[in-house]
Amino acid sequence: MLTSQKASFTLEDFKVPKFSYDEGNDNDSNLKIGFIPSGRYSQIKGEFELTLMLITHDSQDSSKVIFELTSIATFKFKELLTLSDIPPYFYINAIAIMFPYVRAFVSTLTLQANTKLLKLSLMNLSKLEKPLIENTIEI
Question: Which CATH class is domain 9-138?
Fold first, then answer.
C-alpha cells in the first residue's frame, strides 16, 4: 500500500497585477491561447515566485490580442533548498495549482464586464514545465 506524503511546498499568495481585455473583438472568433511561465527563487526565504502570462488572440489574426494577463503565485518551501534541490515535480504541480485561479479570474472578469463569457477549458499544461525550468532564476 502506498502512503501519502505531505507536499514540501504550499501556495502562499496569488495575485493578478496586470491584465487587459479587448471587448471589441468578434465574439464568434476562435481564440488561440498561449502561456509564458517564469520563476524567481529566493533560497534565503525559501520562496518561489511563479509568473504565468496568459495571452489569447484571434486565431485568424495573431496581432489581435483579446485577453492578456500576468499572474503571480508565491510558493513557500518547508525546508530551505538550493535551486537545484527543488523537487522536479514542483514545476508542473505549481502551474497546475495556479491555473484554476487564472481560469476563475478570466471567467469572473468577463462575466462582470457583461460581455461574452470567456471560459478557459481544462488544459494539459505539462509542456510548460520545461520553459518554466529554463526561465527560472535565483535571486
Answer: alpha beta
Name residues whose C-beta falls within 8 Å of residue 116's C-beta, 6 or more positions apart in sequence. Answer: 27, 110
Looking up cell 471589441 gives: 24
Contact 77, 48 (CB under 8 A): yes
Amino acid letter for position 57: H
Q: Where are the domains of the chain?
A: 9-138
pLDDT tens for 10-50 read 999 999 999 998 876 555 557 889 999 999 999 999 999 99
pTM score, whole prediction? 0.86
DSSP 22-69: -TTS-TT--EEEEEEEEEEEETTTTEEEEEEEEEEEESS-TT-EEEEE
- Other C-beta atoms within 10 Å of 15: how many? 12
The residue among 93, 121, 122 whose CA lies nearest residue 11 is: 93
